[in-house]
Design the sequence.
């Protein structure tokens, strides 16, 4: 049974919300996606007592007169950076969870799962001009550090996706999996893209793949932003403290708004796919365990089939 977002809000801390999401995911799996037996060759390491002899590379011994064993993908630690947009627009929410609540809870659930399997997890928070960075580490104590940072989040200012990508490129020194949570409302209006789709800031994030990083985009939106369900004349105020406002009749502009929004969604998903990254539409009203289960299952299928997923 998927966890209703309204039930999550009754839990007193982000830690408990994240663990509830994780329990929902694990109960929905017939087989955990983290228990697969990968046979993808990763690297060598010098033999040590306790290593299995069947993994000794005898060709390397013949050339180097030293014993080396092959390490495999499932034996190597994964470095993950969770990047969350904490700009003002992420404060919006028409239901029990705001966009920022949904993103933070899913971030925390992923951190819990990944650290549980001894991967190193880091966190980057972007809010206005501020940047908070927690370097990737593993260990049970580290997940509490991530919980506390996410629990204290408040959205403020604007989001510049190109600056976010630059900061990620600077901090991700080693090959990493980078999971980005954002509504992708980019403040950099000058940012363009070769495709002419207006996804320049997104392209900057996706180009992190050229540095051998894996990238997954969690496009975080509220259902109101997808549907524009309002009928009466309204005044819309910017949530990014820039003083902008719009007085309008939503019913009159709904058709053109939905056309623009659907084009934005299609372009974002298309660019993510074209550049080899995973794309997930995350709505604050959808059960988060279902979103996470869908992402993990898709990721495992791609890896099992020899593909690469973010």
Sequence:
């Amino acid at each position: 049974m998927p966890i209703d977002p309204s039930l999550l809000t009754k839990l007193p801390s982000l830690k408990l919300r994240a663990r509830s999401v994780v329990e929902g995911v694990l109960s929905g799996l017939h087989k955990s996606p983290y228990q697969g037996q990968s046979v993808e060759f990763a690297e060598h390491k010098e033999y040590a007592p306790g290593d299995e002899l069947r993994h000794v590379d005898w060709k390397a011994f013949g050339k180097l007169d030293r014993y080396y064993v092959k390490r495999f993908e499932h034996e190597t630690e994964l470095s993950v950076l969770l990047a969350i947009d904490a700009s003002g627009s992420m404060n919006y929410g028409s239901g029990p969870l705001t966009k920022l609540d949904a993103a933070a809870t899913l971030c925390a659930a992923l951190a819990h799962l990944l650290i549980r399997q001894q991967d190193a997890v880091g966190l980057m928070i972007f809010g206005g001009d501020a940047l908070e960075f927690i370097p990737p580490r593993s260990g049970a104590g580290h997940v509490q550090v991530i919980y506390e940072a996410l629990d204290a989040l408040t959205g403020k200012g604007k989001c510049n996706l190109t600056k976010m990508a630059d900061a990620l490129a600077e901090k991700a020194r080693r090959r990493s999996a980078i999971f980005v949570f954002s509504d992708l409302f980019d403040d950099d209006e000058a940012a363009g893209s070769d495709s002419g789709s207006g996804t320049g800031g997104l392209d900057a994030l996706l180009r992190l793949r050229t540095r051998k990083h894996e990238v997954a985009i969690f496009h975080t939106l509220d259902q109101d932003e997808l549907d524009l369900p309002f009928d009466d004349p309204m005044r819309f105020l910017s949530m990014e403290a820039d003083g902008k406002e719009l007085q309008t009749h939503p019913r009159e502009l709904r058709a053109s708004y939905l056309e623009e929004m659907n084009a934005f969604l299609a372009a974002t998903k298309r660019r993510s796919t074209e550049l080899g990254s995973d794309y997930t539409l995350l709505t604050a009203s959808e059960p988060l365990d279902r979103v996470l289960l869908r992402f993990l299952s898709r990721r495992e299928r791609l890896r099992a089939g020899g593909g690469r997923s973010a």
